[in-house]
Fold:
Amino acid sequence: MLSNFFLLMKHELIIAVILFLLVIIKLGKERDQAGLLSLVNVLLLINLVAGLLFNKEGSLFNDMFRNSSLAALQKNMLNLGTLIISLQSYGWLKRHAHALEFYMLLLSTLLGMFFMISSGNLMMFYLGLELSTIPLAAMANFDLEKRRSSEAAMKFIISSAFSSGLLLFGISLVYGTTGTLNFAEMSPLLNGSPLQIFAFILLVSGFAFKISVVPFHLWTADVYEGAPVAVTSYLSVISKGAVLFVFVSVLYTVFKPLAGSWYNMLYLLSVLTIIIGNLFAIRQNNIKRFLAFSSIAQVGFILVGITGSSLEGSSSVIYFILIYIFSNLAAFGVVSVVSDVTGREAISDYKGFYKTNPVLTWILTIALFSLAGVPPTAGFFGKLFLLMSGAGTGNYVLVTIAALNMVISLYYYLRIVKIMFMDENENPMARVPIPVLPQLAMGICILGIISTGFIRPLYDYIYSLGIGF
Amino acid sequence: MFLPTLIFVPSLTALAVLVCKGLKQVRVVALAGSLVQLVLSLLLFVQYRQERNAGNDAQWLWEWDYTWFEPLHINFRVGVDGISIAMILLTAFVVAAGVLVSWTMEKLSKEFFFLLIFLGMGAYGFFISLDLFTLFFFLEVAVIPKFLLIGIWGSGKKEYSAMKLALMLMGGSALVLVGVLGIYFNSDIGNGQHSFDLVAIAQTGISPQAQNIFFPFAFAGFGIFTALFPFHTWVPDGHSSAPTAASMFLAGISMKLGGYGCLRVATYLMPEGAQTYAWIIILLATIAILYGAFATMMQTDLKYINAYSSVSHCGFVLLGIGMLTQISITGAVLQMVSHGLMTALFFAAIGMIYERTHTRMVAQLGGLLKVMPFISTVFVIAGLCSLGLPGLSGFVAEMTVFVGSWQNADTWYRVATILACASIVVTAVYILRATGKAIMGPMSNAYDNLADARWNEKLAAGILVIGILAMGIAPFWIQDLVKPGTESIVQRLLGF
Structure:
């Protein structure tokens, strides 16, 4: 019984143990910062490896908490992403006075996401979501001396409080119409009555805020720009990824009876998101804002995949998020190293970047190609499978819009490539040294980008865990 | 023959280029790789003839299948017929010549040769694919290197051209993607299973309604690659801004990706769709032929002359496909090969002239035959091939297209054929005018001390001239080569 408990909650327990360890270390005497950071990274690596071993399916606490192979896979992906982010923000954290606090907040949010993914009950889901959101606001404020950073935190906390409000309203209405908060019991009671549809719209809006779907995206760019790079990448990859995982599973299992209504909703939202995200990304001058809008557009493509509502649908979304972790983090890795050394974040600063920093340029180029969906990078497969899933419903209008928008998105990704390779600059950025740990992180990302599409068992495994109808 | 070798050799060459140091090592490795590939392609051709002579009449030879994404029915499936082999030969000739022409590329030589070889790899993969997914994959692989090649090593308004080319070609492949997905979801290979497998789809077919919806997507998408009017505007800018080798690759290889795709994916898999839309294809092709020819007359820059004439010549490819007779389709394939060799040669010659005189303006050139007889001769051969002189490949290809087109008894189709024929006169005007001014004519004193071609340039031109002559003097071998392939397409068109 007890071993059952330990195995089922393995991911969560390890994170909690690491959290306590960090608290104890913090209470002890001052230590060498570099050594401390290496220790944390080792702990995160142990966390990742331990997550891959001894997996068990089952539920605990009256179905409040469920673990399945799919949930374990999703948690492992988040673990991987967190490790990469931790490695690549080494340079920034090394000089930061509160590096340990940063990790405590980071791990709390991760813990919240894990609970959210494993939740079998709307209450539990809400608890996890809040646990993953509130520390993020503190993290957005982590460039303590910068005003923009606290502005970002303020915007983030207000918009997430608003979206939580919407969610809670939706949850209470769902409870009012079905009389239960348990996912499994709730599903058969959903009959598409107007009140339920209303509740559902509120729930989707709450989700849409978290994954910055247009028209709920307005906070995204400002927060991404103001927050420290490490937090921006965490927000755009890990936090979004976790909510998307839950969104897909909730739609495909719990809200299956309402599939007809949410199909049209997602159709509209995805078209809006892709187009608006793309059009705004074209005009950005700050590279973090640029990546913010590009990530909005990416979510639009993910929604296209979700509309498929088949086995292909869920597996293509998970597969894409895995690839998205690699590609977006590779791009953020370069931005993070550059902004850490030079403090420059404007796109025009990257003019003539290739002359002084060929390696970083190639890494960013490959990452952008992957985001744009250019073969042979993994992004190609990710995008294509999303579109395939969307085409599976026979809605070729949506697929055509998405495919043509891939061309628009290619324009702004190529624009950055052009600026780095082709634009002349009299005093380009000096050579940026890359510390060992960020090198490692970028290496993992590039390896992932190049090889994911060619590792056959990977997609097969994700597909075998797929949910759909 | 183990077909994936055709992909492995360029991939290994590209990787080897990456670990080399300095221009000297890089170019030797790149040349060695592309010569090995040339030998392999010739070997493939010889073996193909042996197989056919031995009575092997399978449609696809040396098929090889590897499951890639099993749940989605995506396979890495390759195989060749005569049309693919003709295209592979063309690619191998152009890649080898392109590497030789770039022998003294000092600027970022490693990246340059890597991208060239990588682009070639995409083309080989495309031509041997028998799976729509793999085919699409390689089609896109061959696009992005062009952006970097033009943008970094190009001249003139290179960034604009590079971006225009990349976006238009990607737009083309977006349309192709919709077409391919449409084919996939309308295919039924038993038990309601969908498939990307070209052979299986051809056997079971897809419904005429679906063909009428998705044929335009696939055809227009591939058509953009091969300068389908009105999507031809990337051609002049792209070709004229590109460095010499990239121009050769663009005209010689990547425009052929489109023609091959129109034939293999659009027409072969959706014959009813092809019949429905044939008149539009012919209309657009005729416009492209005439418009291209007249636009060329107005050009003063040698590269623009060749680029616009490419629009006109690629119009013949589309015309041949649109006429839907066996001879016209054979003609289209021949025209692809011929145009590929000829424009590559033309661009090589223009590049050599530009490198020495630093101008491509016809008005500023003159009397080059006296100082650089070899280059001038090459230029004249390319020009004469372009205007269709008998004995060179252009004549054979265009003649076949015209004969095939005339077989179509419809009045309007015959009008189109006559108009297309008439464009040859215009071609003669611009080619002879440019040649007369630049090669003959009075020589400017500034050009007195210019040197003729070096060994690498002679070799590059030699390789391409051999191809042109081999097709022009003895066309039957290539007609035999592509015949089974075109027959199978025509059989589908006739509804067997």
